[in-house]
């Protein structure tokens, strides 16, 4: 079988695609958490962004090398199959469909709604915010299911729009802050003294949400000119640019308002920072761009979510592959899969509210942050893939076969340890839920094998 995709992208386009895919709402959502986790210690917060970025770069480079070795790879499931076999690929696909995509999609619907409530001065915790979250979730689903072409155009537009607030705050906020002394004040003032190691672990795990998405960029391998040379370059350059933009944005915020204001205000603090730099009208307009950026990220995640079960069914695996593998002849969408994807998003949105926002919480011991732990668990799933790559690819030079994969492995282990320190007993609760969902996947797998 030969691929029909043509090599049409050059290096510059590939770098732009990497940047566009990864940069989204995470930096807006997690900048305040990083600051709170580090007690307002700006240098420690920047170190967290650097560590998270370097882990992303090491992993992205290792996957880029794999993409040049395996002809048919189009995402993490394909890498899992190529290195570990179809069984491991099935479980990774099951995890992506039932946990990874719907948890992150539901959180992004809530983040988009939260920023919208801040814009209009509405309650950011209760009814209005959750109502808007459901609206955004259903709207994104409808856009992806009924008009994939329009969804694609919306995705391209938001890619451009979401860079505007980042670059404006990074450049102007830094310049103004250096001039009026706000940046120097924030760099030298620690609001709350915290345990440095625990604070760093918590902050790095928070940055993982902002950096997530780079694995999708490796799927352009078949369409990239001279991919063996250009894909690793594009991944490394693109991820370095992302890390630099995030750090500069983080520093730019420090030039606009004090750390105390950002830590106390959260999303409202970010809005105040934009208004301080660009007047009330200008700041509000840029804040609208932030909301559009969040909606763009939500749209991209919903795209993956609607295809989650389909990606398993298309391999003749999982429950009822003949049903969930169907594609609508008119819209060219896996309609049955998309319905399950929306249902899973609704379930995880309900869980997120009950576990993290309701007072008292609804689920007792089984409360955990579904915006971070699924991302950490995917780093755990990378570990066998990297180990098998080291074992199998014997003709690679030492740098590509040993140095970068071992660095990536170290980064994955760091993320796991950091999550344990950051989330404590919540990790156990998450692992129990994870185990139950994967056990259900195993039942369906056994049913298929018997059939």
UniProtKB/TrEMBL annotation:
<dbReference type="InterPro" id="IPR050598">
    <property type="entry name" value="AminoAcid_Transporter"/>
</dbReference>
<protein>
    <submittedName>
        <fullName>Amino acid permease</fullName>
    </submittedName>
</protein>
<feature type="transmembrane region" description="Helical">
    <location>
        <begin position="233"/>
        <end position="257"/>
    </location>
</feature>
<keyword id="KW-1133">Transmembrane helix</keyword>
<feature type="transmembrane region" description="Helical">
    <location>
        <begin position="427"/>
        <end position="445"/>
    </location>
</feature>
<feature type="transmembrane region" description="Helical">
    <location>
        <begin position="402"/>
        <end position="421"/>
    </location>
</feature>
<keyword id="KW-0472">Membrane</keyword>
<feature type="transmembrane region" description="Helical">
    <location>
        <begin position="160"/>
        <end position="179"/>
    </location>
</feature>
<feature type="transmembrane region" description="Helical">
    <location>
        <begin position="277"/>
        <end position="298"/>
    </location>
</feature>
<dbReference type="Pfam" id="PF13520">
    <property type="entry name" value="AA_permease_2"/>
</dbReference>
<feature type="transmembrane region" description="Helical">
    <location>
        <begin position="199"/>
        <end position="221"/>
    </location>
</feature>
<dbReference type="GO" id="GO:0015179">
    <property type="term" value="F:L-amino acid transmembrane transporter activity"/>
</dbReference>
<dbReference type="InterPro" id="IPR002293">
    <property type="entry name" value="AA/rel_permease1"/>
</dbReference>
<feature type="transmembrane region" description="Helical">
    <location>
        <begin position="339"/>
        <end position="358"/>
    </location>
</feature>
<feature type="transmembrane region" description="Helical">
    <location>
        <begin position="44"/>
        <end position="67"/>
    </location>
</feature>
<feature type="transmembrane region" description="Helical">
    <location>
        <begin position="373"/>
        <end position="390"/>
    </location>
</feature>
<dbReference type="GO" id="GO:0016020">
    <property type="term" value="C:membrane"/>
</dbReference>
<feature type="transmembrane region" description="Helical">
    <location>
        <begin position="119"/>
        <end position="139"/>
    </location>
</feature>
<keyword id="KW-0812">Transmembrane</keyword>
<feature type="transmembrane region" description="Helical">
    <location>
        <begin position="88"/>
        <end position="113"/>
    </location>
</feature>
<feature type="transmembrane region" description="Helical">
    <location>
        <begin position="9"/>
        <end position="29"/>
    </location>
</feature>
């Amino acid at each position: 079988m030969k691929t029909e995709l043509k090599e049409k992208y050059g290096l510059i386009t590939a770098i732009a695609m990497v940047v566009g895919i990864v940069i989204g709402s995470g930096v807006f959502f997690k900048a305040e958490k990083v600051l709170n986790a580090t007690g307002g210690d700006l240098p420690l917060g920047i170190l967290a962004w650097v560590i998270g970025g370097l882990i992303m770069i090491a992993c992205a480079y290792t996957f880029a090398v794999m993409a040049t070795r395996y002809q048919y790879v189009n995402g993490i499931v394909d890498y899992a199959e190529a290195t570990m076999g179809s069984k491991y690929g099935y479980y990774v696909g099951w995890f992506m469909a039932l946990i990874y995509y719907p948890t992150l999609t539901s959180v992004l619907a809530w983040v988009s709604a939260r920023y919208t409530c801040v814009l209009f001065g509405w309650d950011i915790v209760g009814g209005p915010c959750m109502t808007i979250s459901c609206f955004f979730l259903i709207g994104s689903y409808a856009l992806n299911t009924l008009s994939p072409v329009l969804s694609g155009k919306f995705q391209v537009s938001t890619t451009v729009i979401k860079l505007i607030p980042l670059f404006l705050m990074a450049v102007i906020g830094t310049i103004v802050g250096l001039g009026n002394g706000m940046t120097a004040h924030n760099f030298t003032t620690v609001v709350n003294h915290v345990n440095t190691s625990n604070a760093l672990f918590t902050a790095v795990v928070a940055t993982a949400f902002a950096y997530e998405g780079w694995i999708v960029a490796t799927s352009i391998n078949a369409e990239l000119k001279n991919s063996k040379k250009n894909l690793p370059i594009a991944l490394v350059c693109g991820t370095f640019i992302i890390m630099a933009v995030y750090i500069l944005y983080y520093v730019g915020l420090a030039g606009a308002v004090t750390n105390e204001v950002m830590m106390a205000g959260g999303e409202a603090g970010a809005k105040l920072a934009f208004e301080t730099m660009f007047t009330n009208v200008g700041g509000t307009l840029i804040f609208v761009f932030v909301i559009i950026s969040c909606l763009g990220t939500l749209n991209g995640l919903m795209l993956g979510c609607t295809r989650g079960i389909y990606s398993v069914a298309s391999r003749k695996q999982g429950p009822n592959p003949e049903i969930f593998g169907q594609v609508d002849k008119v819209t060219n969408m896996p309609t049955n899969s998309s319905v399950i994807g929306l249902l899973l998003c609704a379930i995880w949105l309900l869980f997120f509210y009950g576990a993290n926002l309701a007072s008292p919480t609804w689920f007792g011991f089984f409360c955990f942050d579904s915006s971070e732990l699924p991302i950490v668990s995917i780093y755990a799933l990378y570990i066998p893939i990297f180990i098998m790559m080291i074992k199998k690819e014997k003709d690679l030079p030492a740098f590509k076969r040993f140095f970068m994969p071992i660095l990536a492995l170290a980064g994955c282990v760091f993320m796991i340890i950091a999550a344990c320190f950051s989330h404590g007993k919540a990790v156990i609760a998450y692992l129990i839920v994870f185990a139950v969902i994967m056990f259900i996947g195993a039942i369906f797998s056994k049913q298929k094998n018997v059939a």
